[in-house]
Amino acid sequence: QAKARGRNGYAFYAPSMDGEGLERLRLETLLRRALEKNEIWLAYQPQVEIDSGRLIGVEALVRWNSPELGQVGPDRFIPLAEDIGFINQLGEWVLEEACRQLTRWDQAGLYVPKIAVNLSARQLDRGGLAGTVERVLRETRLPAHRLQLEVTESVIMNTGDAMQYINDLHAIGVELAIDDFGTGYSSLAYLKQLPVQTLKIDRSFIKDISTDANDEAIAIAIIQLGKSMNLAVIAEGVETGEQAAFLLRHGCRRAQGYLYARPLPPAQLQAQWGHQHHARLEFAGAE
Ligand code: C2E
Ligand code: MG
Ligand code: MG
Ligand code: MG
User: Fold this and answer.
1) Per the database record, which ranges form the EAL domain (predicted)?
2) For the whole model, what pTM was predicted?
3) N or C: which end of the chain has fewer CB within 10 A?
């Protein structure tokens, strides 16, 4: 209807004033306050060794429970946080909270070997990230090797000086994983020079792994690449026993996905994974 008010067929509103723009502005205002109002929290998704069902780590996945909007997914608010310059504050909170949670579990007697935290491009390209990570590790007294930072290929390729920043992080002793591997455009020559320890096979390749010949070929190629470059490989989005069996058969020993667990609130993770032996038996029984 805004258009109907325009003269000569031109609409004289700025794009930011239309319905979508208003919605976005509202979202933006709410998001900026969400942290201090404690509406942001972290869910943790187990990463397991396929054959034993053993817990090898968890990935922290940010969540926003907004009283006004309901549950908002990270795919909706992370890009917004990046656009409005809020991602550094949010990302720093995520890093602190994830590390704190790992030490809380330690104290509660649940040993989660490793915590993986996602980074966005804006966090990496500021350059100060290594200092922040060092501070957080010091404050939480977490050994650096128990923190794994996940970056996508596009984060790496779109960040000038990415190599330098990643080397700085490596120097501290944190681990690095390439997330959504296979969906981006990173050159293998470049990859070879990065101090990365883990490749995460994107879940789009896992979805139809036993029926789509191309996905199957890509997954196998990534597993082989990992092997020849001496990198750990973990599959994302594993939902069926069939997919897990396929991966194991082709030499991928680690997985993350709904088959094992959804992203869980910390108390629930502790309740379900506090007894590793039980989890293992349940898994064997489910197959
Ligand atoms: P990601 O890092 O690739 O995370 C994996 C996503 O796959 C998560 O979605 C997870 O809930 C979902 N997933 C896990 N297992 C399965 C499965 O078996 N089947 C299916 N269909 N999905 C599965 P989520 O939590 O919605 O996060 C989406 C993306 O948002 C993440 O993708 C990551 O890129 C980003 N993100 C999440 N938390 C953070 C954060 O703290 N910081 C930044 N910068 N990005 C984050
Ligand atoms: Mg991730
Ligand atoms: Mg991923
Ligand atoms: Mg993703």
Assistant:
1) 24-277
2) 0.91
3) N
Atom 7, ligand 1: residue with shortest CA distance: 237
67 vs 227: CA distance, rounded Å: 47
Give the burial class of 70: count Cβ atoms within 10 A of its Cβ; 0-12 exposed, 13-18 middle, 19 or more buried. exposed
126-139 pLDDT per residue, tens: 879 999 999 999 99
Distance 11 CA to ligand 2 centre (A): 42
Please give the distance, rounded to the nearest whole angstrom, from the Cα atom of residue 153 to the centre of ligand 3.
Answer: 11
What pLDDT sits at residue 245?
Answer: 97
ipTM of this predicted structure: 0.98
Residue 178 contacts residue 152 (beta carbons within 8 Å): yes
- What's the number of CA atoms in the CB half-sphere (13 Å) around residue 267? 1
State whether the beta carbon of 45 lies less than 6 angstroms from ligand 1: yes
Atom of ligand 1 nearest to the CA of 238: 18
Q: State which ligand 1 atom lies nearest to the alpha carbon of 200.
A: 3
